[in-house]
Fold this sequence. Notes:
The chain has 165 residues and is mainly beta.
Amino acid sequence: MNESIDYDDAEGNDVDFPSPYITVDCGTDVFPEECPEPVDVDIDGCEDAVEYDAGDLGMESLGRILQLTVTLKNVCPHKRVALAAIVTEVGYDDVEYKRGLKTMTIPAHSGDSCRDVTVRCIKFVLPEDLDVSGKDKGICKKRRFKARFIAHYIDNDFDCCDVVI
């Protein structure tokens, strides 16, 4: 590439362009599961069918999906609401561990007066490898969670000297 560049100036200076290089960053690869170990199976010549017990296989990448519904009470018309849903897991020691936070804008309703607004299908993914319920692990074991919600109006009638839109 540098061989195709010609440079000259009034003072007769030489220029040296270093070899160019390109760095490509494609992010970080994550492999959540190991490749399974192969099981050797031999089939003798002239055999048409073989039965083989390949052993036990454990379930991998297990987890749960928590789907929450909450009803916002007495929401004023024509006002959007900011809603946060927070999930924690309660460990065997009764300590709470963070498991997720979602924030969303709830559209304004156009009713004539305040009404309840139900927000459905707030989903959280809860991988089993984060289980803090005790020594025994597994999808068949009970896990305890707490859900908290915070809501407030986005739109309001306050006007600070006509500078806020």
